[in-house]
Amino acid sequence: MTGLGTLSVWAGEDGPWPGGSTQVPVVHSVAFGHPDLDDWQAVARGDKAGYIYSRNTNPTVNAFEQKAGALEGGESATSFASGMAAISCTLHALLRPGNRVISIKDTYGGTNRLFTEFLPAIGIDVTLVETADDGLLESTVRSGCDLVYLETPTNPTLKVLDIERLSRAGREVGAVVVVDNTVATPINQRPLSLGVDLVVHSATKFLGGHADALGGVVVGTDDLVRRVFAYREINGAALNPMAAYLLLRGMKTLHLRVERQSSNAQIIATHLENDPRISVVNYPGLPSHPFHQIARKQMSGFGGLLSFGLTDGADAVARFIANLDHAHAAANLGAVETTVGPPATTSHVEVSAEAREALGIPEGLIRYSAGIEDIEDLLDAIDGALAAI
What we know:
Distance between the termini: 50 Å
Helix content: 40-55%
C-alpha cells in the first residue's frame, strides 16, 4: 500500500498538465468549452470525463479532492468553500424533516448551533449525548436514528470517541455515520477504515496548514458523496480554484507537519501536566488522559492540538496570551505557526458562557495549536508567559 507521505505529495497530481508543468495549474475559468454539442452533452450526462462549469467541478479543485480522498482511503470526495459548508451541506443533503440525528454535546461551536438551532427549525429531531459516555452514546444510537455525527478528538477538550464501536452501532440501525476528522488528520486517524461512512474536514486547518486558504472536504462512499455533491452543486458553496491550489500545496507536507506538530504537542502537554500553575491539561497522548487508551487503539499519533486551564482562572488568560512569544493569538488551528486563544473567541464563540461551562469549557481554558517551531523555543515561551501571570 502506498504510504501517506507519498500520497501527500503525489495523489491527485498525475496530470498531464499544460506545457508539461510539474505542478497542478490554477484554472480560473468559470466555464469550459466543447468541440461540439455531442461532446458537451456526454460530459453533462457523466458519460465522459470533463468539465462544464466551475460551480460544479473544476480541474484544480478536482486535484484537491483526489488528494484528500486518497489520504482518507475513500471512494470519492467533494469539496466546499469552508469546513462549515462541508458540515452543513452534508447534514442538509442527508437529512429530511422527521429524521433523527444523534451527536455529542462537545462538537465544534458552529456545528453545535446546527444541532441546537438550524436543524430543529426544519423538523429534524436532534439528540445530543454526553461525550464522555460511550456506553450511553452507543445505546442511544441503538434506539434508532438516521445519522450519527461524531467529532473525535473534540475541539477544544480533546475527548476521544470509540469510532469502531459507535460505527458498528450505527450500521446495525441503518444510520449513516459521519466523523469530523479535522483535529486528527488522516495522518493520525482514518475513520473510514473503522467503519465510518463519511469523513469531513475543515481543510482550512491542518490539511492546508498555512492559514491562507479556506476550504472543506467530505470523503466516503461513491453513493453518499454523490448525494452531498448534488446538494452542494445547487447550494453553491463551491471551493475556489485558488484556494484549492493553496490547499494542495500545503498538503504536500502534511505528513511532515503533523508529525512535528504532534511531537511538539506531546512534549508541551507533558511539560505542563505537573505545573502547579496549570489546573488541567487536555491531550490524548498523556497516559493520564481519560481517553488515552481509546486514542492508542485508533490513532497512530495524538495530534497537534491541546488545551490547558490556568489555576488563576479567566483573569490570567489575557495576561498569559499577551506575554506569549512565538504564537498568534487568533481563531485558527493547524497552521505551521503556533496559535492560541480561549474557546470564548475560537472554537465556541458562537455559544454563551453558560453553555461553555456546561460543556466543561471553563473561561480559564486556553486552546493551544502547536506549530512546527523548535520545541525549546515553544517551551521557553510558555514558561515566560506563565511567569508573567
